[in-house]
Each structure stands twice: as C-alpha cells, then as structure tokens.
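For concreteness, we quote verbatim a single protein encoded this way:
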Amino acid sequence: MASSSSDYTLGERICKARDASGLSTAQLARRLGIKTATLHSWEADRSEPRSNKLVLLAGVLNVSPTWLLVGRGTPPVADEPAAADLDSVRVALDRIQRQAQSLADEISVLQERIGGA
C-alpha cells in the first residue's frame, strides 16, 4: 500500500520538497537566511520552523504551508533538469559514443586478423 504525504513527518516533507526542488541543504538555508544546522534540525524533526519561516520555506520550495505541516494538498514535483545538467549528459554521451566506436573498430581489426570470424 502506498503511503501518503500525511504519513510523513514535517521534517521528512521538508526534505522531500527540498530534494524535488534540487536544492542542497546549504542552498536552501542560504535562501531562507538561516544556518544549515537549523535546517538539519528541521529535517531531523528536532525542531520546527516558526510560522514566518514556514511560509517562506513553502514559497521557496513551491509547496503550500498546509502540505508542509500536515501533508494535505499537492506534493512537490521535481524540477526539470537544468540546462547545465543536460549539457554534462550530452558531453558524457559523446564521450561514450566515441569509446564505443573505438571498440567497434578494434573488434573489426581483431576479427580480420583471425580470419573474418
């Protein structure tokens, strides 16, 4: 049976929304004007944000404060990959394709050496 957002703690929902937004704890803490340790405490359910920070947090993470507090409403949706991420994937794919072509060429040479198997 699938669990709903209301089955999670506040800290788990903060973490889930932060992950969906693609932000690190340091990046989110900086945007909120808080220490990273404070955000870690929220995510570990050792403390909770004050109402003004909760509203700011919800805005930065693009979720409703109600979803953060009780898990009701629309859960976060992961952002599309950033253009820089896509560029790095393209570079990696080009490199792998060159390696694959090099291996295919080497296989052809070796096959010719053993009689065109």
